[in-house]
Design the sequence.
């Protein structure tokens, strides 16, 4: 790289989202996964990020692992804590979209009002909701993290599906059913649905 | 772009920062500007982003405009509010570095403890502190936003330099003096200092 003066003199000041999108060669937006614990959100998010990355798309996945331990470590799992959790994640996703990144978010996000708030923050045109529609019984059978067992034993409070409701999307953009369809077919459905959104 | 199955089958799951850095062709880190209101932080941040963008670097600028109105709109300018403001900004910057972006942050960030906390969140090796060292008298003369006049008239409380302290960096990475040096020379100094950091 080059640090000669010429590079500074010729600058246009005030780089904006359109400049960043042009640099990356694609539009930026948010793919928002919602669904029960164990429904397959993280697996789909990882798969989608890998698929997009391999095509040269700038991606980032926001999930509980990198936000509950960091920016949202001061929040609990009460309704108010969940609401603020989703608000902040939406604001971060919005900044990342502005930075030119396709953001994949993977949160249970059980309340319609909170997802609507996220959509309002990010902007309807940049918010693609993917409902990972898997029945509670199947999620509970999978119980990948052993959380349902603990929730049934009252060792975890406010657990979505057990002691706290999940409000399914009414008019979601995409629905995938991980108990009926293979991971690859679910990913394929999502990739086809977002294909046009990527185009500059 | 192509959405055939082949693109899914060949995926490595779990894209990490090193993958994103490789894709972008450069390392990611934070350039953290600190200094009084009117010292020239925003101008330098804009200039730095434009210079890096023109060289193909993925950049994003975090500043009060895009965070105080969004994710941090619930915070005031008390010491506690400022502390939480800087903590959240540091956490967002950290996520963006993970996403492969060179983050330019432009905040007065007057307290050493808060900047040290930001450095701890982001990681010492990814945090470059730039002290925009401009005397209060000059900043007050410039008074670009008319804020010093209001602060002197007690219309704004907790105003850094007037009614709230600014703790200058003791061992900052880079210092620029916008009252003595041209914008271009200040930018040149910063660009030279971060040159090695960009290399993969």
Sequence:
């Amino acid at each position: 790289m080059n640090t000669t003066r010429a590079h500074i003199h010729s600058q246009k000041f005030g780089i904006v989202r359109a400049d960043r999108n042009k640099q990356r060669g694609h539009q930026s937006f948010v793919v928002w996964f919602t669904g029960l614990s164990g429904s397959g959100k993280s697996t789909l998010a990882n798969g989608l990020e890998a698929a997009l990355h391999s095509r040269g798309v700038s991606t980032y996945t926001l999930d509980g692992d990198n936000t509950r331990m960091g920016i949202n470590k001061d929040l609990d799992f009460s309704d108010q804590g969940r609401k603020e959790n989703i608000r902040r994640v939406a604001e971060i996703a919005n900044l990342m979209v502005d930075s030119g990144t396709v953001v994949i978010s993977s949160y249970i996000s059980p309340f319609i009002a909170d997802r609507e708030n996220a959509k309002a923050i990010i902007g309807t045109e940049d918010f693609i909701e993917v409902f990972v529609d898997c029945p509670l019984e199947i999620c509970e059978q999978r119980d990948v993290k052993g959380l349902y067992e603990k929730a049934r034993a009252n060792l975890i409070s406010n657990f979505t599906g057990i002691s706290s409701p999940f409000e399914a999307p009414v008019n979601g953009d995409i629905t995938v059913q991980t108990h009926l369809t293979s991971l690859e077919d679910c990913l394929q459905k999502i990739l086809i649905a977002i294909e046009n959104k990527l185009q500059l």
Remarks:
- Chain A touches chain B through 55 residues (CB under 8 Å).
- The beta strands of chain A are 30-34, 59-63, 102-106, 127-132, 174-176.
